[in-house]
Amino acid sequence: MKSSYACNSIEHEFSRRAFLGGLAAGTATWGLGDVLTGLPALAEPFKSGHKRILNVFLHGGVSQLETWDPKPNTDTGGPFRAIPTSVPGIHVCELLPYTAQQMHRLSIIRSIDTHNSDHARGVVEMTTGRKQLVGIDYPHLGAVAAKALTPDHFTLPGHILVRSSPGERNVESEFHKAAYLGAQYANMTMYDAHPPKNTERAETLTREADASRNALREKISNRFAGRRRTADTEAYNFSFEQARELLTHREVFDVTQESAADRERYGTSEFGKHCLLARRLLERGIPYVQVNHADYDTHHENFDFHIEQLGEFDRPFSQLIADLSDRGLLAETLVCVMSEFGRTPRINDRYGRDHWGTAWSVALGGTGIQPGGVIGKTNDNGTEVIERSVDHGHVFHTIMQAVGVNSTGDFDIGGRKFPIADPAKSAIGELLA
Q1: Secondary-structure class of domain 10-431 per CATH
Q2: Dist CA 386 CA 384 (whole Å)
Q3: Which residue from 34, 58, 75, 309 has the least number of CB within 10 angstroms?
Q4: Higher pLDDT, 83 or 295
Q5: Which of the residue ranges 15-19, 132-136, 224-228 has the most confident prediction, judged by mean pLDDT?
Q6: In contact, 109 and 377? CB cutoff 8 Å
Q7: pLDDT at residue 48, as a whole number
């Protein structure tokens, strides 16, 4: 059923109860096709400066007051306390006790003002860094990262979305557009921490027969390309080769290959499994991984639902940050926690908070980011930004520059120049390491 506390926009056709229902299911097991026998060799190229991005997207609009910018004992603050973190002087909401202990590896932007309170527009603008305009598509952050960060000869997908299974309509796929960058930078979606479907070689097809038919296909394809090579044929060939590599490297996407101890540390929730899978993908050098967590659209009973939602989020996320640091991956991985907007400081008559794009927060950490900092400030009850106002464009530039990409440069697509990020905006310089 629909989430009764959410607004009625199409973005919330996702079933909250179906999402939570999956928490009781045990970890599924799958038969493997070709097993990746050379994981150490595969990972080796990424030990020397290969940058990655992990974007944790809290769909629906997480409340800044119940996370990164608490305002206790005010008319807008709600019932929760602010607690100290591992950085003296920085406090977050008491609903994030584990994340609070990782704050020395993170920084907070408390002055986001996007002038937007629409779900779809908010998702698009936060993940493209551009103002949404009718008839114009800009590439998603994942597509930009995949194009800018994917090493030569990298055979795995560069842009992966990890999320729960969709409802009748997969709205999320509409937001992960590669636009003019081309289909090869579009996202591959992984549902419920399962490996991609149809990535096992059919039992009736022998390894030798498979190799023979692929050799024939390659011969015919090369002959065709020699006479009629186009951008479309290049994209089709890339997609086919990538699909073939998925058959070979299926184990990369199988979270059940992680140890029982690790699975226990991350917990049995779906989000916990997704965080463990994200760690696995980042270890294998995937340039962009996005993990979704829904649904924060708390027009009703905001406080009860944030207890539940952030209870699912807090421990797995903090465990992921700690693991990335302990394994040396955080030095090469930019971590972002964002949403499409925040929630209103005013508490409505249903004990909820409504859409609010005027003064809210985003958290960043990892490579290229000064840790343990706070950028910007809101007033005493959180109703407006009073210091260092920034928006989606500034965040996009900051993310790209943190991973070593000149966000003021251009992509050359078919001889045309396309700015990597909004030329009217710039990075948050004081946040960059």
Answers
A1: alpha beta
A2: 6
A3: 75
A4: 83
A5: 132-136
A6: no
A7: 38
Domain map of the chain by residue range? 10-431
Q: Which pLDDT does position 9 carry in this prediction?
A: 57
Per-residue model confidence as pLDDT tens digits over 131-149 = 988 888 999 999 999 999 9
Please give, one letter per residue, the 3-state secondary structure of 260-291.
HHHHHHHCCCHHHHHHHHHHHHHHCCCCEEEE
Picking from 82, 9, 65, the residue whose alpha carbon sits closest to that of residue 346 is: 65
Look-up of token digits 């991973």 = 403
SS3 track for the chain = CCCCCCCCCHHHCCCHHHHHHHHHCCCCCCCCCCCCCCHHHHHHHHHCCCCEEEEEEEECCCCCCCCCCCCCCCCCCCCCCEEECCCCCCEEECCCHHHHCCHHHEEEEEEECCCCCCHHHHHHHHHHCCCCCCCCCCCCHHHHHHHHHCCCCCCCCCEEEEECCCCCCCHHHHCCCCHHHCHHHCCEEEECCCCCCCCCCCCCCCHHHHHHHHHHHHHHHHHHHHHHCCHHHHHHHHHHHHHHHHHHCHHHHCHHHCCHHHHHHHCCCHHHHHHHHHHHHHHCCCCEEEEEEECCCCCCCHHHHHHHHHHHHHHHHHHHHHHHHHCCCHHHEEEEEECCCEECCCCCCCCCCCEECCCEEEEEEECCECCCCEECEECCCCCCEEECCECHHHHHHHHHHHCCCCCCCEEEECCEEEECCCCCCCCCHHHEC
Higher pLDDT, residue 278 or 23: 278
Which pLDDT value is given to residue 213?
Answer: 75
Provide the token pair at 85. 């973190």
Residue 367 CB contacts under 8 Å (≥ 6 apart), including other chains: 51, 330, 331, 332, 333, 334, 402, 403, 433
How many other CB atoms sit within 10 Å of the CB of residue 200?
16
Q: Is the pTM of this model over 0.70?
A: yes
Using alpha carbons, select from 235, 228, 312, 306 the residue that is nearest to residue 267.
Answer: 312
Tokens 């509409």, located at residue: 174
Tokens of 219: 């011969």
